[in-house]
Amino acid sequence: MQKLLIDGKKTLSGNINISGSKNSALPILAATILNNHTTIKNIPFVNDIFTMLNLLKFIGLKYKLSKKKQSVEIINQNKKINTVAPYKLVKTMRAGVLVLGPLLAKYKKAKVSLPGGCAIGTRPVDLHLFALKKLGAKIKIKNGYIFASAKNGLKGAKFKFPSISVGATENAILAAVHAKGITTIDNCAIEPEINDLISFLNKLGVEIRMSGRKITIERSIKEKKTSHKIICDRIELGTYLIGGALIAKKLRLKNIDSNLIKKEISILKKMGVKMSVYKNYIEVYKSKKIKKININTDPYPGFPTDLQAQIMILMTQAKGLSKIKESIFENRFMHVPELKRMGAKIEIRNNTAYITGPCLLNGAEVMATDLRASVSLVLAALIANKRTKINRIYHLDRGYQDLEKKLIKCKAKIKRV
To answer: Could you give the 3-state DSSP secondary structure of residue 146?
Structure first.
């Protein structure tokens, strides 16, 4: 099993190109089931993307990758379509369940394995199935699979999610674009990745409007040759912003849209992070006087749960007691025992982490437990004394393209073994 060896206290400087958003690309890849010929640009080459492409291939679509152009071309000829998403392809990636909506909508049936992914909480598919039932689907769960059918096709409906879910919102939209009539969904997720999916579907003739947390879907999809550029990965951007604040002489983050992380920029500035923000790039510098802060993770436009582990590293360098209340997932502090092995002063009570700083971190052997926890250990290792060995880094490869290459280019000392 591969490991990362990181020697700390190496000052970063240089440029990092931020990749396209994994969390945007995955639902748009699922949406290509609905179209005949799609080219997706600015796609990140990470393991979750390759898993989704293999799933589309299993279903019967064809794809062609271009690493030089950072794009993928996907063709659905509607021949020998297999409306099944097997366990072997869905077990490592929760986004695999997103093929349920488009398969059911277009082919009127689907058999999809219950999903896997990071072990950060229960994250049930109840809300996905709730939405599909409202659109007229018949659902049953048997032997670890979701069996869904709609013999006469899905029908437009009006309903409200009992709680906010990004994945369920995406699946509901993907199913509704083939439903007869108008669909109105309330209490939706409104993340930038949802907007990117809507932008793609609008190119296919669907009329989708968003007003607050309400989404209205009219007109059925029209299959045609289409191309779409994925937005930048706001979580990767936030991760490197925090890294720059910790140990960069000057780090320039490019290929971005700074409007996507207004909340994160505001919080980092309150903590004393020095940065210059422009629309297409941000420059960030090591900040010597980090201030304590209290934050809650919340659905967008709140502070993202996917940056909770990373900002915790910055809090270890702040003077005083900082707090993070985790409001999204009940099991997302699994990185804390590993950080404590490195000398971090963190206590967990209920769903809140209490971080006392500033504290000196020391290199140690640690283990990654999920995608964002993995990268928080990388950030901790960059500022720690001596060497840190990070085990189980396959989590990193699911969501960060060329992480060590990007950091090595900026003078970090990292080795994969």
So the answer is: strand
Examine the fold and report which residue of 186, 202, 229 is the final residue of a domain before the chain moves on.
229
Residue 8 exposed, middle or buried by CB count within 10 Å (0-12, 13-18, 19+): buried
Query: Tens-digit pLDDT profile for the chain (417 aa)?
Result: 899 999 999 999 999 999 999 999 999 999 999 999 999 999 999 999 999 999 999 999 999 999 999 999 999 998 889 999 999 998 888 888 999 999 999 999 999 998 754 443 444 789 999 999 999 999 999 988 999 999 999 999 999 999 999 999 999 999 999 999 999 999 999 999 999 999 999 999 999 999 999 999 997 789 999 999 999 999 999 999 999 999 999 999 999 999 999 999 999 999 999 999 999 999 999 988 999 999 999 999 999 999 999 999 999 999 999 999 998 876 678 899 999 999 999 999 999 999 999 999 999 999 998 888 899 999 999 999 999 999 999 889 989 999 999 999 999 999 999
* Same domain flag for 208 and 279: no
Task: Choose the final residue of a domain: 177, 209, 229.
Answer: 229
pTM here?
0.95
88: containing domain: 22-229
Instruction: Return the CATH number at 306.
Output: 3.65.10.10
- Same-domain status, 238 and 176: no
Residues 56 and 133 grouped into a single domain: yes
Active site residues: 118
How many structural domains comprise the chain?
2
Closest CA to 193 of 403, 23, 15, 370: 23
How far, in Å, CA of 282 to CA of 294, rounded? 24
Classify residue 134 by burial, with Cβ atoms within 10 Å: 0-12, 13-18, 19+. Answer: buried
